[in-house]
Every structure is written in C-alpha cells, then in structure tokens.
Design goal:
The protein is an all-alpha fold. It contains 7 helices and no strands. The longest helix is centred in the N-terminal third of the chain and has 26 residues, at 2-27.
C-alpha cells in the first residue's frame, strides 16, 4: 500500500506542479485580472488548499482502487485521461486564453471523475467518498469557467 501511495502521490502532485507552471503567472496576468469572474470565485489561497486536499484524497483512492479493480487497463486508462485533462486545462485556459476549450476540457474532466465515482462504487464502497471532494471541486471549477465563458 505504501508503494502505491508514493507512486500516486508523485503522479498527482506532479500534475499539480505541471499545471501550476501555467497557472501561477496566469492568475496575476492582466488578462485574468481584467475578465469578469463569478461572484462565488473563492480567494486565490483556497485553490491551493483545495487541490492539496483533493490530491491527497485522490491518491488514497487510487492506491486503494488498484488492488480491488480487476480491469487494470480500464482503471489506468481513466486515470491517465483524467491526468491529461487536469494538467491540460491550465495551459488551455491560462496560457492560450481559450475559455470555451477550457470549458470543454474541465467539463470532460468533471464527467470522467463522476464516472469513476459511480462506476467503481460497487468495488470501492465507502472508500468512494475519497473521490467526492474532487468531483465537488470540479463542479465548482466548471461553473467558474462557464461564468467566464458567458460574461467575457
């Protein structure tokens, strides 16, 4: 279990680090500070705290799922796809300023995490709760992206 935790910690926080390369300058950029944002947009520090908690929970979820889920190919495929979508949203939105493409990306990511929650519910049982913070945060993030798409 420790080995799996370390692997998924490295992968998950690696995703955050890669995404952060594009996000850090993007949040303080003239483009982002000048666009209309949703009134429910949390302060900047909330994003870092939320993503840290989410990735810790998701790490434990994946480490727990790995020995339980028979179809490892599907589990790995879903995991890699969510990883790519998660990392990919940052440059799409913050670097290229493609708000609609970002909305499509984060919507796909939200749907995928929701699919993982419900698809593996039977195998994961109560451990499925560990992926719920990820899904809730993605729903919020998708609504923020959608607001920006509508108002800018």
């Amino acid at each position: 279990m420790i080995y799996r935790l370390i692997i998924f910690l490295v992968l998950n926080f690696g995703a955050l680090a890669l995404g952060g390369i594009f996000t850090s300058k993007g949040v303080s950029s003239i483009w982002y500070t000048s666009i209309a944002k949703a009134p429910w947009t949390p302060p900047g520090w909330v994003f870092g705290a939320a993503w840290t908690l989410i990735m810790i929970c998701f790490t434990v979820y994946m480490a727990y799922a790995w020995p339980l889920i028979e179809n490892k190919k599907l589990l790995l495929g879903l995991y890699v796809t969510q990883w790519i979508l998660n990392v990919g949203w940052n440059p799409i939105f913050f670097y290229y300023h493609q708000v609609f493409a970002g909305l499509l990306t984060i919507s796909a990511l939200t749907a995928l995490v929701g699919l993982m929650l419900f698809f593996y519910w039977t195998d994961m049982k109560l451990a499925s709760i560990l992926i719920v913070p990820y899904l809730i945060w993605l729903i919020i993030a998708t609504s923020l992206n959608y607001f920006i798409y509508l108002k800018n």
